Amino acid sequence: MQDAIRITRNFTLNAGIRYDLQTFEPGPLVSNPLYPASGKVPTDMNNFSPRIGFAYSIGEKHPTVIRGGGGLFYMPIPAMYASQVATDNGIQQSSLFLNLMVPAQAALFPSYPSPLVDCPPGTLICNLPKSLAGLVTTDISAFAPNFQTPYTEQANLTVQHQFGDSIVATVSYAYVRGVHEIRSLDVNLPPPTVVDYPVYNSTGSVFLGMYSVDSFTTWQTTPSVTCPYPPCISALQRPNPQLGAINSYQSDASSIYNGLTVSVKHQMSHGMYFQVGYTLAKAMDDGPDALVVGRSGNVQNSYATSLEWGPSVNDQRNRFVAAWVAEPKFHFGQGTLNTLANNWKFSSIVTAGSGRPVNATVAGDPNGDGDFYNDRLPGYTRNAFIGPDYFSTDMRITRTIRCGEHMVWNLVAESFNVFNRTNSRVQISDDGFYNSAGEFVAYTTSVKGTVYPGEFLMNSQFLTPTNAYAPRQVQFSLRLSF
């Protein structure tokens, strides 16, 4: 429902309310007795979102216009979540993972040509050997019992003034706060304990100090079959040992965006148009990871989610954009010169921006939670580093040729990144194949007489660009309008 109210000839008010209801048809839902919250899809019935906006004009010939508004905006829940809950219920499938870094598991790893499991032909159910049965895990994906539909609180205020007949200046402010945003947490983890590991350079030759890690695993200090040379990092002991990771889709993440934009626009006059704008913005959140399904999310410590607060992945503090269009008009005495010199259009866009955040991820799962995507360099918050800045110029040239009264040809030449500037990218991966801030290695190491079951290897080059945005591209096109 929406209504527009014209209070005075200079003041207009818009008010309304919207109701959102989302339902799913994910197919048969089965709840796992080991985790009753599984196999259920939420239906939020109270999603009412009021909205209001206004416009107020001051002056007549060259007016100043003030516009503003605010309201709630609910976001649809991606259907892949409901699909994952229907299939990943811990009953239909299970998995086996052998870590070659653990001596006991390495001994169970099959060697060619011996198979891991030898099943007779035609067998419908093939049981694992007893030596492997204890290593089988069953993961579950489920919505949290208190799951709520995500929404944003949005507000904006714009002041616009016209100078002369063709120049308009605008100052605008935007505020967006995300509430109940989605992120995935593994809720089948024991409380972490703080352990210390030594840190070395990338070659392991220079000792750099000690780092503390909130670890979900413990150390074994006595010799055994699984740990012949202690200390060793023990296997993860989950509160519910019959289940593996329980990927709970929580709606407790949040975000805040504040942006101030100043722009000047010259409306098309005498064959010339341009617009220049600058935005100063800041985007912060605590790690929403929508569209992460089938595995635990990117939160490093499920018991300390407040530590995830930091710059958003799309945070860009400074951004400058300038655009112009020129259609020159010439008047020569000869018709041929007029035909050749006119009907050209030149346009360009220049974009410049400061660097975006980079997350210092570490390969090797140092906190031992079984999630290889969420480990960061100890001592640094999420997205603690800033990548390279960005600058690019795009240009277009258009030539219009008229053939009679009903046919027009447009010849277009375009170039993106016309100056071929190298816009570098720092691409940090979670597995260390491309680049990472460091690596955790579960090798026994000794520092000043104390033995540790693992160590960090720092990568001093992890902020070195490993990729780049598109180079200069040129394309031509021909269009016929009739």
Q: How do the helices and strands line up, and which of them pair or pack?
A:
Elements: E1 2-8, E2 11-20, E3 47-58, E4 64-74, H1 79-87, E5 95-96, H2 103-108, H3 130-133, E6 136-137, E7 140-143, E8 151-163, E9 167-186, E10 193-200, E11 207-215, E12 219-220, E13 232-233, E14 246-269, E15 272-285, E16 310-311, E17 318-326, H4 335-341, E18 344-353, E19 357-358, E20 362-363, E21 385-386, E22 390-402, E23 408-416, E24 424-425, E25 438-441, E26 445-447, E27 450-452, E28 455-458, E29 467-468, E30 473-481
Parallel strand pairs: 7-14, 10-28, 20-25
Antiparallel strand pairs: 1-2, 2-3, 3-4, 4-8, 5-6, 8-9, 9-14, 10-11, 12-13, 14-15, 15-16, 15-17, 17-18, 18-22, 19-21, 22-23, 23-30, 24-29, 25-28, 26-27
Reported for the largest beta sheet, the result is: 15 strands, mixed
Helix/strand structural class = mainly beta
Number of helices: 4
Oligomer: single chain
Helix content: under 10%
Detail the poorly predicted runs: 430-434
Query: N- to C-terminal separation?
Result: 42 Å
Average residue pLDDT: 90
The gross shape turns out to be: elongated
Calculate Rg over CA atoms.
Answer: 30 Å
Count of individual domains: 2
For the secondary structure, the number of strands is 30
Strand content: 35-45%
Structure, described:
By secondary structure, this protein is mainly beta. The protein has two domains: 1-94 and 138-181 and 239-314, no CATH class; 190-237 and 318-482, no CATH class. Helix content is 5%, strand content 45%. It has four helices and 30 strands. It has a 15-stranded mixed sheet that branches. A five-stranded mixed sheet has the order 11-10-28-25-20, with no helix packed on it. Strand 1 and strand 2 form a beta hairpin.
